[in-house]
């Protein structure tokens, strides 16, 4: 997938695409419906399939939330979009000046003159421009005057439940990670660098790869069954079953949230490398234990529980592993 970070100077060979526009946080099933409609139109027109997204997330600029809220940091979002077959990813830098653009300016300057979109696809509730004054009807009107086709997609969902990033965030906050694939279309995951911890896990027979979660939206604290992919394993799509504690380790009076991943049947050195952790199900809430022996006994039980959970669940699809290159275009 080709990444174009400067819409003001889009290369000629990255213009003329069918472009799905949005934040795409979570790249959930509703987003996928938008992408699939774009794919159908791109095939009809013989045009590339692209996405225009905004970084940082507009809420980070306009609302300054106190708590992390993004389901997918840019690296994971880009990987998800690459998995969906997006050929070009336009990344518009979102700041207060960009937010102040009038709707007509966004369409004329960014969508038309900037990236040279041939056709755009958006969700039914897409809003754009200063104070979110632009809607699908206005986008269609301005697009028609500029020779750009516009298609909007109805809300996607199951029964009466709409697939949305807000619903995914609620499930995550409750620790209901087993329900997230029904919204996202796949497991929710964390991707981070392995740091050196207290090395206590090695001394009790359960070595862990530790990843900081500060600034990352993550599930409720507890023990989880998950699939882990160490750096390099993506070359052949390998995922390893694992169990992890996400929390503050109250038994040792720690205060920083940390993801401690014990990978079954893996002995490689992970310090300083990246680790992907795809959350399958929650084993139990985090709690304090009366000493090391009690903790060791519970970890052994947690390992058995996690193995049993993962034995009946599929690993992340090997075809969706991080094998598609993300090529930067700095124009």
Word description of this protein:
With 331 residues, the protein is of the alpha/beta class. Helices cover 29% and strands 25% of the residues. The chain is built from 10 helices and 15 strands. The chain has helices at 29-45, 58-62, 74-83, 96-99, 103-114, 136-146, 165-173, 181-184, 200-203, 292-311; strands spanning 2-4, 18-21, 49-55, 88-93, 119-123, 149-153, 157-158, 161-162, 188-195, 209-212, 222-230, 240-247, 258-263, 274-285, 327-329. It has a 7-stranded parallel beta sheet with strand order 6-5-2-3-4-1-15, with helices on both faces. A 6-stranded antiparallel barrel has the order 9-10-13-12-11-14. Strand 7 (157-158) and strand 8 form a beta hairpin. Helix 5 packs across helix 6 (136-146).
Architecture blueprint of SSEs:
Elements: E1 2-4, E2 18-21, H1 29-45, E3 49-55, H2 58-62, H3 74-83, E4 88-93, H4 96-99, H5 103-114, E5 119-123, H6 136-146, E6 149-153, E7 157-158, E8 161-162, H7 165-173, H8 181-184, E9 188-195, H9 200-203, E10 209-212, E11 222-230, E12 240-247, E13 258-263, E14 274-285, H10 292-311, E15 327-329
Parallel strand pairs: 1-4, 1-15, 2-3, 2-5, 3-4, 5-6
Antiparallel strand pairs: 7-8, 9-10, 9-14, 10-13, 11-12, 11-14, 12-13
Helix pairs in contact: 5-6
| Amino- and carboxy-terminal Cα gap | 16 Å
Q: Quick check: average pLDDT?
A: 88
Structural class: alpha/beta
Rg from C-alpha positions? 22 Å
Secondary-structure element order, N to C: EEHEHHEHHEHEEEHHEHEEEEEHE
Low-confidence stretches: 318-331
Which strands sit side by side, in order, in the main sheet? 6-5-2-3-4-1-15
Number of helices: 10
The helicity comes to 25-40%
Specify the overall morphology: elongated
For the secondary structure, the number of strands is: 15
* Residue fraction in strands: 25-35%
Largest sheet: 7 strands, parallel
């Amino acid at each position: 997938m080709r990444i174009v970070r400067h819409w003001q100077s889009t290369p000629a060979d990255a213009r003329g695409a069918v472009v799905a526009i949005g934040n795409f946080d979570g790249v959930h099933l509703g987003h996928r419906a938008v992408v699939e409609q774009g794919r159908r139109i791109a095939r009809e027109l013989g045009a590339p399939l692209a996405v225009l997204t905004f970084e940082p997330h507009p809420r980070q600029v306009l609302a300054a939330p106190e708590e992390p809220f993004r389901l997918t940091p840019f690296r994971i979002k880009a990987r998800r979009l690459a998995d969906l077959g997006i050929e070009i990813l336009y990344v518009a830098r979102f700041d207060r000046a960009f937010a102040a653009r009038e709707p007509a300016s966004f369409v004329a300057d960014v969508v038309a003159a900037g990236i040279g979109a041939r056709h755009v696809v958006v969700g039914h509730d897409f809003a754009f421009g200063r104070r979110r004054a632009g809607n699908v009807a206005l986008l269609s009107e301005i697009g028609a005057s500029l020779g750009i086709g516009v298609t909007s997609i109805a809300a996607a969902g199951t029964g009466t439940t709409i697939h949305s990033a807000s619903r995914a965030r609620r499930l995550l906050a409750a620790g209901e990670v087993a329900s997230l694939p029904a919204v996202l279309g796949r497991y929710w995951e964390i991707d981070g660098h392995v740091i050196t911890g207290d090395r206590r896990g090695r001394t009790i027979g359960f070595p862990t790869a530790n990843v900081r979660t500060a600034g990352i939206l993550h599930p409720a604290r507890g023990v989880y069954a998950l699939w882990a992919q160490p750096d390099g394993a993506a070359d052949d799509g390998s995922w390893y079953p694992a169990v992890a504690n996400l929390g503050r380790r109250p038994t040792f009076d720690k205060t920083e949230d940390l993801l401690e991943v014990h990978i079954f049947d893996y002995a490689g050195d992970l310090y300083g490398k990246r680790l992907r952790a795809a959350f399958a199900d929650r084993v139990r809430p985090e709690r304090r234990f009366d000493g090391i022996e009690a903790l060791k006994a519970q970890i052994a039980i947690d390992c058995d529980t996690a193995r049993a959970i993962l034995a009946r669940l599929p690993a992340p699809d090997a075809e969706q592993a991080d094998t598609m290159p993300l090529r930067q275009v700095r124009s």
